[in-house]
Structure formats: structure tokens, C-alpha cells
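User: Okay, second chain of the day. Same drill as before: sequence in, C-alpha cells out.
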Amino acid sequence: MANTIIHKADSRGYANHGWLKAKHSFSFANYYNPERMHFGALRVLNDDNVEGGMGFGTHPHNNMEIITIPLAGAIEHKDSMGNGTVIKRGDIQVMSAGSGIMHSEFNHNKNVPLQLLQIWVFPDKKNVEPRYQQIALEEKDYQNKLLQIVSPHQEDEGVWIHQNAWFNLGNFSGRHQVNYKLKSAENGVYAFVINGSFQIDGTILSNRDGIGIWNTDGFDFKAMEDNSEILLMEIPMKF
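Assistant: Same drill. C-alpha cells below.
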């Protein structure tokens, strides 16, 4: 029988910096919960709202796979690898921080709030050469089906990272049901409801609720209302 853990949206850590309002599914910065340090190799799941024109000044990272998913608005990104770009809803960005990078992230718009998910995954290799990748999705490609947006393989759909992990994104109409099969018996899945509501493993989950599932080869989930969007993050439970 599968193991599960449920994290309701209102149980997350919260930080209000004025220009930044952030919800933390796992311990981060001033939010510390010894029972919420990580889920397998998934270390950080931050749900950020950034005021117009504001953002994170240049700061370092190393030995982490960092995936950014804008939900509304646009992010202006610059880094020590020479990248300078804008990412918006429908784009997926990954940085393999590896041996060390510096970067900054700002709300590209002066008057429009920015909403984004930033996700950190522990890598399976340390001190790799830092790298950057960005892709644009077509919304029709994840309507009533899952679209792979992250994998361990350069030749696969989506961006790739240094970890045996697969992320899938889907937007579903009400009562649509899907069966998800895990890629590896060593992995678990952390499912995060971006919008709407889903029934997963017999539990109803709503906006920004999360559930971790492991010791299973697959599970069913069903959208409970139209425009229900979900992110599935399959990651190793031991790393």
C-alpha cells in the first residue's frame, strides 16, 4: 500500500517582506519545520508573489537544480553565465547551479504583480559545470493530459536536470481522470495543485495543497472542477 503525506495550503510557512509574499512548502530561510525539510530529493517548493519592479538582487547558488515556473506576469533574469532573458507564464526555466553561479530575478513589469513557483532539487552530481535552459510551452499541449516539462535526459521533452526526476504539468476539465505510472520504483511523487481541485488517493485537494506519494508504482487522480491545474514532481526518495 502506498505511503502518503498531505500538506494543506494553509500549513505552509509564510514570509511577508512587503514587496515579496512567499509560501514555503518546505523549510526555507526563516521558516524552519524539522518535519518539512524536504520530500526525497525535492528540497524547496516556494510559491512567490513579487510586487511590480521588485525582485531578488544578485545572489549565489551552488550544487542545486533550480526550476522556475511563472504562473502570472514575467521575470527578468540575469546570471554570471551571461544569460539575460525574460520568462513568462508558459515558460519553464532551469539552472544547474553546480560549481557556483550568481543571478538576479526581478519582476519585469512595474505595475503588474508576478507569481511564480521556484523549485529546488538536490542533484545527483556535485560541482558540475553550471548551465541554463529555458523552454516555452503551448497551453494546448497540457489540456486534459500531462505534459513532461522536466526529465534527466537531454533528448527528452522539456528541460533536463542532473537528477533522476520527471515533472509533468496538466490542466484538466472537471471529472477528467488520469493514471500516473512512476518511472522508477525508487521514486515518489509530490503533487501540487496550482488551481482548482483534484481527488488523489481518495483525498480532495484544493488550490496550493500538496500530497507526497511513495512506495507505489502508480496512482489515479481526477479533476473535480474545470480549469484544474496540477504539477507532478517525481523524484528519488533516497539520494
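Residues 12-136 form a domain with the Jelly Rolls fold (CATH 2.60.120.10).

User: Thanks, on to the next one.
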